[in-house]
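Q: Start with the shorter request: fold the first protein.
A: Done. Sequence, then structure:
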Amino acid sequence: MLGFLLVVQVGCASELVVRAPEAGPASRPSPLAELAPLAVSIGPMQGVPDSDAPIGERGAAPFQPGGPIYLTEPPGRALRRMLEATLTSAGLRVVRENAQAHLAPRLLEFRLDAPRDGGAWVVAARVGLSLRVTGRPGGPDWDEMRGRSERSQRVLWRPGTTTVESVLAGCLGELATVLSDSDELAAALAAHAGKPR
């Protein structure tokens, strides 16, 4: 019985549960700011995995088995929060009704792994998002753009929550910057809202 309990405890300890960052991108000059105070609606996030599915794996260490990495919320919710923060930090308004333009987001990738590489571990996050821009939900005319980001960190110890969350935060922050700096996204929003740039 003691051996069985020991196995169960080690198995539980191999899982890692992390949080996505709450903070949005820092205020910075953005092409999107030229459209303020444009009202934008955001549709449901498409392409999302099961909410209880792991987002990656952490490699094993001596006397510590490898195990899955979980997010405390669905990845689509974390990405939507980042998208809303990116728009509002540029002065745009995220609304449910009477929008001038509409975004239909799709999750392309949300992966966070920490494999062992020799005597170290590499914590690597990869996030991808596509945005379809229309004048209204389901509109026949649309533009689509994609944004991706990657962030990694090599550590000499088995990574825990703090290190893994830091890499994920950096990755999501980079994606927010990609969207914020996108002239293509700003032009598409302006075109479908009928606003000259």
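Q: Next, the second protein, separately.
A: Sequence, then structure:
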Amino acid sequence: MEFPDDKIDKLLAAALADLKRRIEQLESGRISWPAFTTAVKGLLSDLYYASAIATAGRGLTAEERDIVERAIAEQNNARNKDFSLSRLLADYAAGLMTLAMLAYRLGQYLKSSRAAAWQIWGNEAATSELFKRYLGGSDHCSSCLLYAAMPAMRFADMVLPGQDCECRSNCLCIIKRV
């Protein structure tokens, strides 16, 4: 089973369009701040689950639901509190960033759903299978160049695209079975 890039891209595009609509509603006063924050958190959660289900190609097991829940919790309350969704929303509410900055950062949070999809995809892998990271796109951070130069390895030992690299949610690297 190959990673369903096209399905994930379509889900992400729909979520980004929904985010844009919500931001326009907030800007025009058609939605309150509390309603906006609830909607954004729901959008993130829905996208993570939809990406995981699209990746699994079926309903999720209890273990896979736990993976998704941990990924959502990590975004909502990141270990580094400066990068948590809760902090981002609080910073905007306190006037510490513009609406454009908020929109950009929220888009990054939505793009991070791909990491949860990678985890579900890798969960299906047999422990003896080997995988390799390949560079995607044309701009690469130094971490991604290093990860792509590494030999094939078990999925459980890999650093997933978007994790522990300077690209973060903009990472276009892919993982393939070798």
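Q: Describe the second briefly.
A: The helical segments are 5-28, 33-56, 62-76, 85-93, 99-111, 113-123, 142-149. The mean pLDDT is 85.
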